[in-house]
Design brief:
Blueprint: H1 2-40, H2 64-69, E1 85-87, E2 92-94, E3 104-113, H3 120-136, E4 141-150, E5 153-163, E6 166-177, E7 194-203, E8 221-223, E9 227-228, H4 240-255, E10 260-262, H5 281-291, E11 295-307, H6 313-320, E12 329-340, E13 345-357, H7 371-374, H8 377-398, E14 403-410, E15 413-417, E16 429-435, E17 440-442, E18 445-448, E19 451-462, E20 466-474, E21 483-486
Parallel strand pairs: 8-10, 8-11, 9-11
Antiparallel strand pairs: 1-2, 3-7, 4-5, 6-7, 11-12, 12-13, 14-15, 14-21, 15-20, 16-19, 16-21, 17-18, 19-20
Helix pairs in contact: 4-8
C-alpha cells in the first residue's frame, strides 16, 4: 500500500510538472508577438507625444500601439530595444534624439536711404531696414502678376512680391555715402544717399517668425475670464469662470508664452444676445492701461448643454411615467477672440468643441481645474478643448509684431511701456513711429493713423514693466504717445 501511494503521488507530481511546463510554454508563445513588436518600435512611454518629458537623455514619445491598447512593456534593461536605454525612475525605455541644426543661408545685400537735413545717423538706420527687406526677397519669394489686354495690347501690367523669409541675424560689412558713379559711369544726382552693405543670414527654422523686422519680442497678452452665453447649462460645474481662465494661463505658460497677465474682472452680458468682442476704443484703452497688454484673449462658452439621446426601453418607460431620465450626451463649444488693444481690431478667432457620450454630469463637489474634475468624462473633454485652444492661441500670438508707446520723457531719456518678459535687452534698438496729421475716419469708423518712422531709441536699462531708452537717431521730435516698434 505504501508503495502504491508513493507511486500515485509521483505520477501526480509528474503530471503537475508537465502541466506547468505546458502552461509556461503557452505563455511564452503568447508573449512572442509583443516582444517582436517591441523590437520593431523605437520609443516607448505613456507621455503625450506633443510635449514629451526631459529625462536627461532626450524626449520620450508615445508608442501608438501601446497608447491605443493601454498596455505597457515589462520593466527591465533586457526589454529595451537596441539603441535605447532603460530609465528606472520612469520605468520605460528611451532613446537619444539627435537634434539636427537647421541650415541657414547668408547673403550679401545693400540698402540705400536718403540723408535729410544732414542726419546720417537716421539715414543709416533706414538703410539697414532697406537692406534687410532686400535680403528677404532672396528666399521664399512669391510673385503675383496681373495683366490686362485690350485690342491685343497690354494696357496694365503689375506685379506683387511677398516673402516669407525668416531673418536669423545680420552684420554690417560696409557703410558710408553711396558711390557717386552709377553702373554706366555717370554722375549720380546730388545729394548722395547713405549706403550700407549687410551680411544677412536667412533660415527656415519655424521658430523664427517671418516678416518681422528687428528683434522678435514676446508680446504681452491679457487673459480675460470666460463668458457663458447660457450659464444654467453649466450649473453642475463649480469654479468654471475663474478656473477656465487659470487653466488657459497655466497652459499658455507651458507652451512658452511667459509675458502673461490675467484680467481680474469679468464681463457682464445680457442673456439671449449675440456675444462678440466689444471693440470700443475707450473700453480697450482702459484694459490696456490696467494691464499694459498689447493683446486681449476673450473666451466665450457657447454651449455646455446636456441631452437625453438614449431611446432605450428603460428610458421610454421612465418618460411614460414622468420619471427623471439621466442625460447621456453633452456638447461643449468655445469661441475665442484675440483682440489688438492698440489698433482696436480682432486679429484672430476660432471655435473649438467636443461631443461627450456617457456620464455627463460632474457635480459641484468637483471644482473646475482639479484632478477630480479632469478625471470625469466632461473634464477629459475640457482638457482636450483647452489643449487645442491654447495651441492655436500660442501660434496666433507668437509672431504678432510688437507695438508699444512712449509713456514719459525725463531729460534726455524716454520711458517705453515694455515688460521685461518680452525679451528686451540693454542695447536693443527700437523704432519710434509718429502720426502724420489726425485720425483717418470713415462713416463714423476709425481706420487708423498714417504712421512714419521718425526716430530710433537705444535701450539703456530694463525695468519690470518699462524700459529706459535714449535717442540714437532722430528726424522728428519724439513725443509722449508716439508709437514704438521693433524695427
Amino acid at each position: 500500500m505504501a508503495n502504491s501511494k508513493l507511486s500515485s503521488k509521483a505520477v501526480l507530481n509528474s503530471e503537475n510538472t508537465i502541466r506547468k511546463l505546458i502552461f509556461a510554454m503557452g505563455l511564452f508563445v503568447l508573449m512572442v508577438p509583443f516582444m517582436t513588436q517591441a523590437q520593431d518600435d523605437v520609443l516607448f512611454g505613456d507621455v503625450e507625444s506633443q510635449t514629451g518629458q526631459n529625462l536627461g537623455l532626450d524626449k520620450v514619445f508615445d508608442l501608438p500601439a501601446l497608447e491605443n491598447s493601454k498596455q505597457s512593456l515589462p520593466a527591465g534593461k533586457n526589454n529595451c530595444p537596441e539603441g535605447s536605454l532603460y530609465n528606472p525612475q520612469q520605468n520605460r525605455c528611451v532613446i537619444h534624439v539627435v537634434k539636427q541644426s537647421i541650415p541657414s543661408e547668408c547673403v550679401t545685400v545693400k540698402g540705400i536711404a536718403p540723408i535729410d537735413n544732414g542726419n546720417e545717423d537716421f539715414a543709416q538706420k533706414m538703410a539697414i531696414r532697406e537692406a534687410i527687406k532686400n535680403a528677404t526677397m532672396r528666399r521664399n519669394l512669391n510673385v503675383r502678376t496681373d495683366q490686362k489686354m485690350e485690342n491685343y495690347e497690354i494696357t496694365m501690367d503689375s506685379s506683387r512680391f511677398t516673402s516669407q523669409a525668416r531673418v536669423e541675424s545680420f552684420r554690417i560689412l560696409e557703410e558710408g555715402l553711396e558711390d557717386p558713379m552709377d553702373l554706366y559711369g555717370q554722375d549720380k544726382k546730388k545729394p548722395l544717399g547713405y549706403e550700407v552693405t549687410l551680411e544677412v543670414c536667412l533660415t527656415d527654422d519655424p521658430k523664427v517668425c517671418p516678416n518681422l523686422e528687428g528683434h522678435q519680442y514676446q508680446t504681452r497678452l491679457a487673459v480675460a475670464p470666460v463668458v457663458m452665453e447660457n450659464a444654467y447649462e453649466a450649473r453642475d460645474i463649480s469654479n468654471l469662470v475663474i478656473g477656465y481662465q487659470k487653466e488657459v494661463e497655466r497652459r499658455l505658460l507651458q507652451q512658452g508664452h511667459l509675458n502673461l497677465i490675467g484680467l481680474d474682472y469679468t464681463v457682464e452680458i445680457q442673456p439671449n444676445q449675440k456675444i462678440t468682442p466689444n471693440l470700443d476704443e475707450r473700453l480697450l484703452t482702459d484694459v490696456r492701461n490696467q494691464t499694459g497688454a498689447q493683446y486681449l484673449l476673450l473666451s466665450v462658452l457657447k454651449s455646455a448643454s446636456g441631452h437625453e439621446e438614449d431611446n432605450g426601453f428603460m428610458n421610454r418607460v421612465k418618460r411614460t411615467y414622468n420619471l427623471q431620465v439621466d442625460k447621456d450626451s453633452r456638447y461643449i463649444e468655445v469661441d475665442w477672440y484675440l483682440v489688438d488693444l492698440i489698433n482696436f481690431r480682432t486679429v484672430s478667432e476660432a471655435r473649438d468643441g467636443f461631443d461627450i457620450k456617457g456620464d455627463v454630469r460632474v457635480g459641484r463637489d468637483r471644482p473646475f481645474g482639479t484632478n477630480a474634475f479632469f478625471a470625469t468624462d466632461v473634464g477629459k473633454a475640457f482638457h482636450a478643448l483647452l489643449k487645442e485652444q491654447t495651441r492655436k492661441v500660442y501660434e496666433a500670438v507668437r509672431c504678432q509684431p510688437f507695438e508699444s508707446e512712449v509713456i514719459e520723457k525725463r531729460g534726455d531719456q524716454y520711458l517705453v511701456l515694455m515688460d521685461q518678459r518680452s525679451g528686451v535687452e540693454v542695447g536693443d534698438v527700437l523704432a519710434v513711429y509718429q502720426r502724420q496729421d489726425r485720425q483717418v475716419r470713415f462713416n463714423g469708423r476709425t481706420l487708423g493713423y498714417d504712421l512714419t518712422p521718425g526716430a530710433f531709441l537705444t535701450v539703456k536699462r530694463v525695468m519690470d514693466q518699462f524700459v529706459i531708452a535714449e535717442l540714437s537717431a532722430s528726424q522728428e521730435v519724439v513725443q509722449i504717445g508716439d508709437r514704438v516698434k521693433a524695427w
